[in-house]
Amino acid sequence: MRLTILGGGGFRVPLVYGALLGDHAEGRVSHVTLYDEDPARLAAMARVLEDLAAAAAVPDAPTVTATRDLDEALRGADFVFSAIRVGGLEGRAADERVALAEGVLGQETVGAGGIAYGLRTVPVARGIARRIARVAPEAWVINFTNPAGLVTEAMAEELGDRVIGICDSPVGLGRRIARLLGARPEDAWIDYVGLNHLGWVRGLRIGGRDELPRLLADTEALESFEEGRLFGAEWLRSLGAIPNEYLHYYYFNRDTVRAYQEAAQTRGAFLRDQQRGFYAEAGRAGLPAGAALAAWDRTRAEREATYMAENREAAGVGERDESDLESGGYEKVALALMRAIARDERATLILNVRNGSTLSVLDAGAVIEVPCLVDANGAHPLGVEQLPLHAVGLVTAVKAVEREILAAAASGARADAVKAFALHPLVDSVAVARRLLDGYATAHPGLAHLR
Q1: DSSP assigned state of 102
Q2: Which residues make Cβ contacts (< 8 Å) with residue 127, sequence separation at least 6?
Q3: Quick check: 22 and 49 in contact, CB under 8 A?
Q4: Any residues with CB less than 8 A from the CB of 330 and at least 6 apart, and which?
Q5: Each residue of 53-63: pLDDT tens digit?
Q6: pTM for this entry
């Protein structure tokens, strides 16, 4: 099989390639094409993958090629993994600055920052989807580009159910809960429902029995893992569920905004500076074998340790525990998804797919994040209990914002963009929404027409 990675110079590409190196089954990926517009990032990442293959010492490592020609990258692909970042990390840092100046959240996928990122990304994602439909119509598309649910919905306009969104947050959360309950994650059924970065674990069944109530009753166990420390045992028991970590931005918004404003550097600015150093080191001439991979490992360890540091500061819980540093495993989800489709090996995975009739409060085309059965015909959302009223409010409000982003990206109309900002639960004034849009239109040339 042939896999194309869009955003092939991106920092997390080695996770995907590393997962492929461990797959030796018949029908595995034999060729990986990296596509990126930045030749320096492509060259540095190719070095890291070369080091990875050498360290793995497997005889059948997938061949890697790199290109800046999108049609060349897509031609002959069986799967396309999309992980692009429109505007780069400089754009993310600007998203954060503009929002915080107005006293609202500027996070990459949540609130004003997520809206700005979506307005930049949706037109590009739609264009890529049209190219895939023309050049590689039989390819399956796995989308990790953020905001993942919104971008998957935009690409589905052209690709239908052949585009599937993935995220590592639900995977990591389910794994942590299962282990706390003494179960292997692969043996647990996770009742998870919502939108991307806006979902809740409402149950975790082991041997047919829901064991989540046992965890919710145990304060010590609840406060022994990341989400329990962030939200606190009392609030989790009030909800009767374990929220995705991104809901901390909603439930503790004022505290989080204050922590972000007081931080020496925003997350986007930190990653921008950190990755500049990594790519400069990995791309240096005369680098010895293994040095690029070592630089990537060091950078990744620091990245994971500082993840959501401001939220932990707001919650007063200090640094991440070592047990929470393990990746959510989106690369493993991607590999399991490809295997299930290519080999018709049935798997149950939490994915971003079109709703159909799964959640009655949303229309059929709305992309949601729920457990799905995956087979050769794609991903099929499984039946879930309907959302409680408090979750309905957040899910429908945020989905309404996503629809306004899609409309604004298509129309180019300022009124649609202002509406997207103003309707978000974390933006508290239409006047603020207008100033946010003006700030983003000034910061990003691609949004200048919305000023």
Answers
A1: T
A2: none
A3: no
A4: 12, 15, 144, 166, 167, 168, 171
A5: 999 998 889 99
A6: 0.94
